[in-house]
TrEMBL record:
Pfam families: BPD_transp_1 (PF00528). Belongs to the binding-protein-dependent transport system permease family. Residues 69-281 form the ABC transmembrane type-1 domain. It comes from Saccharopolyspora ipomoeae. The chain crosses the membrane at residues 12-40, 73-94, 106-126, 151-173, 211-234, 260-284. It is found in: Cell membrane. It is a multi-pass membrane protein. Keywords: Cell membrane, Membrane, Transmembrane, Transmembrane helix, Transport. This is Sugar ABC transporter permease. PANTHER family: ABC TRANSPORTER PERMEASE PROTEIN (PTHR30193), INNER MEMBRANE ABC TRANSPORTER PERMEASE PROTEIN YCJO (PTHR30193:SF37). Gene3D superfamilies: MetI-like (1.10.3720.10). The keyword ATP-binding does not apply.
Length: 292
């Protein structure tokens, strides 16, 4: 056994090397640089000055920053379960073979293949007050989906779910296809109906897949492209800062106010918080196994 494992090690390392290199170059290294820049005052014009912990101290009294954290948490609380169950429900619907199933799967995944900027412009057109297609179809002419502070964040969440549910569907579909058919046959012989088969076969066997979807959904809700691109295109953080996520707030500090050091400190704090939450999820679920 040990001899087999040692002979497979080079092949395993070769397969893992591209992903490991990508994680190092595009995630670990930028995160480390952001942390380092957070200790400096950087204005984007070549002026760099050591600031120590000043940028991190400024965050304590920044009310807009903590409001953006609250908005990000609210977004995640809404987005993660909605995207999870939308993806799972769609995967269950298209898991069986029927005429045209490939077309249906492709249509559901299609939004995820389109640029988020295009998605944002499309929904901006559809949600135009009084004259947009949504207003005409629903008859809610007086509702401002993107201009009302109480509705703007929910609208962003629903658009994000619509955008990502096809991707989540494919992940769940892969998990469903890995479940041996014999388990369902045995449950049917024992008199189990659709709900019993889902509860005692599908759901337990999908736990690793569910954990992956849960973690990736959380990361998307906090640092994903949709919490910047959609906000930038649809609301620019408004109205009344009701859709200013932490990522968008960091962008404002860096590129609108020239406070690159402060923005880097915010991003470093966000990465640490997200890493801690992900670590807690791994610990509680044992990497998605949910058992001893």
């Amino acid at each position: 056994m040990s001899r087999t494992r040692s002979s497979d090690a080079p092949a395993a390392a070769a397969f893992l090397a591209p992903d490991a290199l990508g994680l190092l170059l595009f995630i670990a290294l930028p995160a480390l640089l952001a942390l380092l820049v957070g200790f400096f005052q950087v204005d984007g014009f070549g002026n760099i000055e050591w600031a120590g912990l000043e940028n991190f101290r400024l965050m304590i009294g920044d009310g807009l920053l903590w409001k953006s954290f609250g908005i990000t948490i609210g977004y995640a609380v809404l987005f993660v379960p909605l995207a999870f169950f939308a993806g799972l429900g769609l995967a269950l619907l298209v898991s069986d073979h029927f005429p045209g199933v490939a077309v249906v799967r492709a249509a559901l995944f299609l939004p995820n293949a389109v640029s988020l900027v295009v998605i944002g412009l499309l929904w901006q057109f559809l949600l135009t007050d009084k004259t947009g297609a949504v207003a005409k179809l629903t008859g809610l002419d007086e509702v401002s989906w993107l201009g009302d502070p109480t509705l703007a964040l929910l609208t962003l969440v629903l658009i994000s779910v619509w955008f990502l549910m096809g991707y989540q569907m494919l992940i769940f579909l892969g998990g469903l296809q890995d479940i041996p058919r014999e388990y369902y046959d045995a449950a049917t012989v024992d008199g189990g109906g659709p709900w019993q088969r889902f509860r005692h076969v599908t759901w337990p066997m999908l736990r690793p897949t569910s954990f992956f979807v849960l973690v990736t959904s959380l990361i998307n809700a906090v640092t994903g492209l949709q919490v910047f691109d959609l906000v930038y295109v649809l609301t620019s953080g408004g109205p009344a800062n009701s859709t200013t996520t932490v990522v968008y707030y960091a962008y404002q500090q860096a590129f609108l106010f020239g406070r690159f050091g402060y923005a880097s400190a915010i991003c470093a704090l966000l990465v640490v918080a997200l890493g801690a939450i992900t670590g807690v999820l791994f610990a509680l679920t044992r990497g998605g196994r949910f058992d001893a």
